[in-house]
TrEMBL record:
Keyword Metal-binding recorded: no
Lineage: Bacteria, Pseudomonadati, Bacteroidota, Flavobacteriia, Flavobacteriales
Location of the protein in the cell: Cell outer membrane
Keyword Acetylation: no
Source organism (scientific name): Flavobacterium aquariorum
Top-rank taxon, per record: Bacteria
UniProt signal peptide: 1-18
Protein family (similarity comment): Belongs to the outer membrane factor (OMF) (TC 1.B.17) family.
Name of the protein this chain belongs to: TolC family protein
GO cellular component: cell outer membrane; efflux pump complex
Keywords in alphabetical order: Cell outer membrane, Membrane, Signal, Transmembrane, Transmembrane beta strand, Transport
MF terms in GO: efflux transmembrane transporter activity; porin activity
């Protein structure tokens, strides 16, 4: 019975697994689906979300400093040799003499509870004020991480598509060249063509096959990179639909406000945190005041007091205390001043980073806009070149069949047509990558999920 259940379970598991693989392999992987998968599975995105979760625990830790601190304590002490004290005998009616007396008991046991409550501590108050900023910092950092994941996935997604397009072009060229080879071979068999012509066609087909193998290898490497940036198992098969690679004119608006960019907002939050850090260091100049209280129970006697009674010579008593602790800093060797100045330098350093980041973000937008404009022109030119090269190839092929063009002319036309198609594909890729850069510079990478 157990074997039957085990076989049934294994059969179900293998069937389910094959269904998953089959679904992954047959369903087209759109850019939106790739990005969604990456945001859910990529380690960087997961760690950023964990940082947001961890920030809540950091805030709880800061808040705990403003709450009462309660501790329980206990002790058990054995004194094998009691300390001897020398006392003036006049206190006992024997002036002019000294008395040696031992105080205490062989065994002492105690238990108690202590409480401390901060009443005034500027550093605690500063930490509480910084708690909300800490949460916002990690939330913005999570958003920035997601944008970085989206950018990497989008760029690699389009790169995979281009490599597959190049492979399709080579396959098509191989088929066309095979037809020419058959024609030349027929002519050679009938004495209408030279053997060198047939050899040239065979060499070209061999070169195409070599290029094809290289492209297949590049596709595999590029797909592996895409799966890595998605957080997808490398063995998973993916299918990218052709409709995902249409080149559409991008909206070229005025330069966006860099102060709305995630990179800038993150640095500004970091500046706020550094300001709080400086304030917390300054708090060391302020006095601190705290309430302390304790209640204790002590037992003493010649034997272990834990379970003994007065009849055994062990006596228990309790005591308590309530007080205020005031600490006023007077001189710290200029250590606090040095730390305050270090914190100030950190703030000014970050402010320079903020200025540099603003320039960098402006540069990214200007460069992306320029690349978009140039690539639109390039795509138009390459598209026209591809059309012309196709027409030339068609006419040259007809002329060759009629004996009006040489084999060299035909091979040159085929090479020109393939090169024109490759140039067009590369131009579209350059446009799509520039488009991603433009969307990023506008802080709108999340729109790729729409």
């Amino acid at each position: 019975m157990k074997r039957i259940l085990l076989l049934t379970f294994l059969t179900f598991a293998l069937t389910a697994q094959s269904q998953v693989v089959s679904t992954t392999a047959t369903n087209p992987l759109t850019l939106k689906a790739a990005i969604t998968y990456a945001l859910e599975n990529k380690a960087d995105a997961k760690k950023a979300r964990l940082s947001v979760e961890n920030s809540e625990y950091q805030i709880e830790e800061v808040r705990s400093r403003a709450l009462p601190q309660i501790h329980a304590n206990g002790s058990l002490t054995y004194n094998p040799i009691l300390q001897t004290n020398v006392i003036d005998g006049s206190a006992f009616g024997a002036p002019g003499t000294t008395i040696q007396a031992s105080f205490g008991q062989k065994w002492t046991s105690g238990a108690g509870v202590s409480l401390s409550q901060t009443i005034f501590d500027q550093s605690v108050f500063t930490g509480l004020r910084a708690a909300q900023t800490t949460r916002e910092f990690y939330q913005i950092n999570n958003q920035l991480t997601e944008e970085q994941v989206i950018e990497k996935v989008a760029n690699n997604y389009y790169s995979v598509y281009v490599q597959r397009e190049r492979l399709a072009l080579l396959d098509s060229n191989y088929v066309n060249t095979s037809k020419v080879r058959d024609i030349v071979k027929g002519q050679f068999d009938n004495g209408l063509a030279k053997k060198i012509d047939l050899d040239r066609i065979i060499v070209k087909m061999s070169n195409i096959d070599t290029d094809r193998q290289q492209i297949i290898n590049q596709i595999q490497l590029q797909e592996n990179a895409l799966k890595f940036f998605m957080g997808m198992p490398i063995e998973t098969e993916i299918v990218i639909p052709k409709t995902e690679f249409e080149a559409t004119p991008a909206a070229l608006s005025e330069a966006p406000n860099t102060e709305n960019r995630t990179e800038y907002l993150l640095l500004k939050k970091q500046e706020e945190l550094l300001q709080f850090q400086k304030t917390a260091i300054k708090a060391e100049y302020y006095p601190t005041l705290s309430l302390v209280a304790g209640y204790n129970y002590i037992g003493q006697g010649p034997e272990v007091p834990l379970f003994a009674k007065p009849a055994d010579g062990v006596y228990w008593s309790d005591y308590s205390a309530i007080g205020l602790n005031l600490r006023v800093p007077i001189f710290t060797g200029f250590g606090t001043r040095a730390r305050v100045r270090q914190a100030d330098v950190d703030i000014r350093t970050l402010q320079e980073d903020i200025k540099d980041t603003q320039l960098s973000l402006d540069l990214d937008y200007r460069n992306a806009k320029t690349q978009i404009e140039n690539n639109i022109i390039t795509i138009g030119n390459q598209k026209e070149n591809m059309r012309l090269a196709g027409d030339i190839l068609k006419n040259t092929k007809n002329n060759y069949l009629q004996g009006l063009a040489s084999l060299t002319d035909l091979l040159d036309a085929e090479n020109a047509s393939l090169e024109a198609q490759n140039n067009y594909t590369r131009a579209v890729l350059a446009y799509k990558i520039a488009e991603i850069s433009l969307i990023k510079s506008k802080g709108e990478l999340k729109t790729l999920l729409n």
